[in-house]
C-alpha cells in the first residue's frame, strides 16, 4: 500500500468561534441565539450533511405537540410545577428539569416572534391541551407540521443573519486537545460529500477533507436514526452518535428510547386523531387472509374501543399500560403479528372494526366524538370532521386514506438518552463541547409529548449563553500544535480508507456490502433493543459487534470513493449499537425492571427483589415480563469510552433546586457573570 503523506498546506483550515453540527430546529435556534448574545455572525457556522433533511423538517403526527408551561386562562402553573412533572418521569436531574421549565415560555415566545403561528384566542391567550404524561393543558400545536414550521421560521432568520452554512459536509472527526486538565475541543474534520469521485482514489479522498479550527462545538445531530429496521425517523435523518463517543463524551440513559405505531410507506406517527376515530386494525397472512387480530386479545368491542381511543393520547409504547387491557397491548399485538407471524399489519379508515356499534363504544370514546362533532359511519368520515389536516398530510405524500390501507409497524421514534451534559448543555467530560436537541441525554425515562421540542430550544439558548459570556474569546490552540494534531488524524483516516478501498470480494468469503451489514445491525437492534428486551443471547451479540468493529475495514467492500460515507455510517451505527446493547446488558445485570418503552424478559426471577412476571393475555403470554421493587428511576446510568475501555456507572439524580436568591444578590451575580458558571 502506498504511504500517503498529507500536505497540510493544501488544506484550507477555517477558523470559527462556534460551529454547530446539524441544521434542525435545535441547531438553527442555537446559531440564532449566539448572534443575539453577541457573537459576530462571521464567527459562527453551521455544518450539515443535508440542509432541511433532519427530523425537525420531516417529522410529525396528527397534531405535533410543543410542550411548555401553561399560560392560559385561570390554570395554575409555575416553573416549579412543570419541573416536578418532568422530573417525575424518572432518571432526569431536577436542576435540568427546572431549567427546561423556567425557560419554556421564553423560547415559546421566541418562536412566536419568529412567526410560528401557534393558535391563540381573541384575548391573545395561547390555548393548550393535555398530551401524554401531562397533568395540565400545557401542550400546543399548529397541526401536523409544528417542528417543520419551526425549522422554516428559524432558517429564514438564520439566512437574514448571513450565518455561514456548510451544506453537504459529513462531520467525520472531532479534534480534542487532551493535554489540558480537562479535554477540550479544538477542531473538526469533515468530508465534502460532493467532492467525492466515482473512482477508487486516495488523493481524491484527501482533497475532499475540510478542516475547521474552532473554540466551541455544538452537536445538534439528532438521534441514531439508522439503528432500527422499523423507524419513524425520516430517511434523510441519519445521526452520528459515535462523534460524541469517540470525542470522549460520557453518555447517559441509552437504555431509554421511545417507540410507537407509525406508518412505514410514509414515515409518520399514527397518534391522536388517527386512533380517536377508531380505525380497523388487521393483519394479512401468507394466503392474503385479513385477520382482525385484536379481537383475539381484547374480551369485548367496548374494551377494544377504549384501548384504540386511548392509543391516541397514550401513543408511546408504555410498560405500565399493558395490564387490564391497556392501550399499549395494541403495540405488543402488532409487534407479535410482525415479528412472530411475519405478517403485514394495516390500519383501515374505509371500514369500521367488526362488531362496531356506536352505542357500544366505551364512554370515553363516545363522549369525545360527540363533543368534537366528529360523527360519521366510517373512520375516514369521523377523521375528516375531527382533523382534516391529518388526512391531507398523507394525501400530500400520495396516500389517500379514503381509499387506501395504511401499513404500520411498531417504530423507533426518539432517543431519550444521549450525551451527559450540565445545566448549560455542555458535555460533562469535554470542555467547549455542547449537545442540544435529541443527542442531549436529558429527557429521562418518559416525558410529556412535545417536551423534546421545548428541550431542544432551551438547550440552544443555554449553550449560546455560556459561550457568549464565558467562551467568547478567539484565542485558539497554537497553530503548529493544531497542525500536528490534524496531520496525525488525517494520516490515520487515510490509512483506514486505503484498506477499505483495496478490499475486493475475492479477499474474503465474508466480505459485505454496507447495506448487508446495516441489515444485520437493524435486525440485532430490533431483537434486543426494541420494545422487547430479552437477556438470553445478548452477551453473544455484543461479542459479535465487537468482532465486526475490529474487522470492519476488512469486512466491507466498496466500489467507489462516493461509498465511503456509507462505510462511515455503518461504522458509526456499529459503535453506537455496541454502547446501546452494553447499556441494556448492564441494566439486565443490575436487575432493572420493565419501564418506559420496553418490557424486560429474563428466565429467572430474583426473589430478594420480589420480582414477578406480568403475563399478557392469550397468544401474547410468551412476552411475560418482569416487574420488581428495585427503583432505578432515581439513578442515571452513564457509559463512556475511556482509555480503550467502556466504563458504566450509576449516578444519583439531583433534586429540583428549591432555594431561590433574592433580586439584589442575583443581580450582582449576573453582572459579574457568575450565573454562567
Describe the protein's architecture and organization.
It is a single chain. By secondary structure, the protein is α+β, with helices and mostly antiparallel strands. Among the domains are: 259-412, no CATH class; 494-632, Up-down Bundle (Methane Monooxygenase Hydroxylase, Chain G, domain 1), CATH 1.20.58. It is built from 20 helices and 23 strands. The strands form six sheets. Strands 1, 2, 5, 6, 7, 8 and 17 form a seven-stranded mixed β-sheet that branches. A six-stranded antiparallel β-sheet has the order 11-10-15-14-12-13. Strand 1 (14-21), helix 1 and strand 2 (44-48) form a beta-alpha-beta unit. Helix 1 (25-36) packs parallel to helix 15, helix 16 (479-502) packs across helix 18 (538-555) and helix 17 packs parallel to helix 19 (564-589). The protein is globular and about 80 Å long. The termini are far apart. The model has no long low-confidence stretch (mean pLDDT 93).
Amino acid at each position: 500500500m502506498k504511504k500517503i503523506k498529507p500536505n497540510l498546506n493544501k488544506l484550507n483550515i477555517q477558523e470559527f468561534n462556534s460551529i454547530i453540527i446539524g441544521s434542525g430546529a435545535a441547531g438553527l435556534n442555537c446559531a440564532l441565539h449566539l448572534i443575539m448574545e453577541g457573537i459576530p455572525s462571521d464567527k459562527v457556522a453551521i455544518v450539515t450533511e443535508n440542509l432541511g433533511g433532519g427530523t425537525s423538517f420531516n417529522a410529525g403526527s396528527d397534531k405535533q405537540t410543543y410542550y411548555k408551561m401553561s399560560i392560559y386562562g385561570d390554570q395554575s402553573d409555575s416553573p416549579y410545577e412543570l419541573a416536578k412533572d418532568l422530573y417525575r418521569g424518572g432518571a432526569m436531574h431536577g436542576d435540568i428539569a427546572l431549567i427546561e421549565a423556567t425557560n419554556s415560555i421564553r423560547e415559546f415566545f421566541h418562536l412566536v416572534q419568529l412567526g410560528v403561528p401557534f393558535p391563540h384566542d381573541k384575548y391573545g391567550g395561547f390555548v393548550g391541551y393535555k398530551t401524554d404524561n401531562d397533568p395540565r393543558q400545557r401542550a400546543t400545536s399548529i397541526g401536523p407540521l409544528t417542528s417543520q414550521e419551526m425549522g422554516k421560521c428559524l432558517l429564514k432568520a438564520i439566512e437574514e443573519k448571513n450565518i455561514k452554512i456548510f451544506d453537504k459536509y459529513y462531520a467525520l472527526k472531532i479534534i480534542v486537545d487532551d493535554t489540558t486538565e480537562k479535554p477540550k475541543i479544538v477542531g473538526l474534520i469533515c468530508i465534502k460529500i460532493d467532492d467525492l469521485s466515482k473512482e477508487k482514489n486516495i488523493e481524491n479522498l484527501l482533497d475532499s477533507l475540510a478542516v475547521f479550527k474552532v473554540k466551541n462545538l455544538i452537536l445538534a445531530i439528532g438521534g441514531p436514526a439508522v439503528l432500527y429496521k422499523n423507524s419513524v425517523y425520516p430517511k434523510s435523518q441519519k445521526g452520528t452518535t459515535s462523534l460524541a463517543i469517540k470525542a470522549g463524551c460520557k453518555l447517559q440513559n441509552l437504555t431509554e428510547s421511545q417507540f410507537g405505531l407509525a406508518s412505514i410507506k410514509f414515515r409518520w406517527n399514527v397518534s391522536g386523531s388517527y386512533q380517536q376515530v377508531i380505525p380497523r386494525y388487521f393483519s394479512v397472512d401468507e394466503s392474503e387472509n385479513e385477520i382482525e387480530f385484536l379481537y383475539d386479545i381484547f374480551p369485548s368491542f367496548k374494551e377494544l374501543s377504549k384501548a384504540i381511543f386511548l392509543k391516541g393520547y397514550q401513543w408511546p409504547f408504555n410498560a405500565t399500560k399493558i395490564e387490564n387491557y391497556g392501550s399499549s397491548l395494541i403495540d405488543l399485538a402488532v409487534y407479535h403479528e410482525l415479528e412472530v407471524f411475519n405478517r403485514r399489519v394495516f390500519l383501515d379508515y374505509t371500514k369500521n372494526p367488526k362488531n362496531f356499534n356506536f352505542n357500544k363504544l366505551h364512554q370515553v370514546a363516545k363522549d369525545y366524538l360527540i363533543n368534537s362533532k366528529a360523527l360519521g359511519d366510517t373512520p375516514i368520515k369521523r377523521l375528516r370532521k375531527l382533523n382534516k389536516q391529518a388526512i391531507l398530510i398523507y394525501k400530500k405524500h400520495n396516500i389517500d386514506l379514503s381509499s387506501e390501507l395504511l401499513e404500520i409497524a411498531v417504530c423507533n421514534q426518539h432517543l431519550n438518552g444521549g450525551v451527559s451534559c450540565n445545566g448549560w448543555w455542555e458535555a460533562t467530560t469535554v470542555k467547549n463541547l455542547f449537545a442540544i436537541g435529541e443527542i442531549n441525554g436529558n429527557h429521562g425515562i418518559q416525558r410529556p409529548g412535545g417536551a423534546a421540542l421545548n428541550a431542544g430550544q432551551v438547550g440552544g439558548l443555554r449553550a449560546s449563553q455560556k459561550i457568549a459570556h464565558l467562551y467568547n474569546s478567539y484565542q485558539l490552540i497554537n497553530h503548529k500544535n493544531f497542525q500536528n494534531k490534524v496531520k496525525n488524524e488525517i494520516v490515520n483516516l487515510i490509512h483506514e480508507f486505503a484498506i477499505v478501498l483495496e478490499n475486493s470480494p475475492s479477499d474474503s468469503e465474508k466480505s459485505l456490502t454496507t447495506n448487508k451489514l446495516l441489515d444485520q445491525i437493524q435486525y440485532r437492534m430490533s431483537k434486543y433493543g426494541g420494545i422487547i428486551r430479552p437477556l438470553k443471547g445478548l452477551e453473544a451479540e455484543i461479542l459479535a459487534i465487537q468482532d465486526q468493529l475490529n474487522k470492519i475495514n476488512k469486512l466491507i467492500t466498496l466500489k467507489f470513493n462516493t461509498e465511503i460515507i456509507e462505510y462511515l455510517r455503518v461504522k458509526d451505527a456499529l459503535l453506537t449499537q455496541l454502547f446501546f446493547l452494553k447499556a441494556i446488558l448492564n441494566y439486565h445485570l443490575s436487575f432493572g425492571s420493565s419501564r418506559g418503552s420496553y418490557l424486560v424478559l429474563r428466565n429467572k426471577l430474583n426473589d430478594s427483589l420480589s420480582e414477578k412476571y406480568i403475563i399478557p393475555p392469550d397468544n401474547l403470554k410468551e412476552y411475560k415480563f418482569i416487574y420488581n421493587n428495585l427503583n432505578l428511576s432515581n439513578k442515571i446510568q452513564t457509559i463512556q469510552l475511556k482509555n480503550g475501555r467502556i466504563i458504566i456507572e450509576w449516578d444519583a439524580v439531583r433534586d429540583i433546586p428549591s432555594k431561590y436568591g433574592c433580586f439584589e444578590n442575583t443581580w450582582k451575580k449576573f453582572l459579574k457573570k457568575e450565573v454562567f458558571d
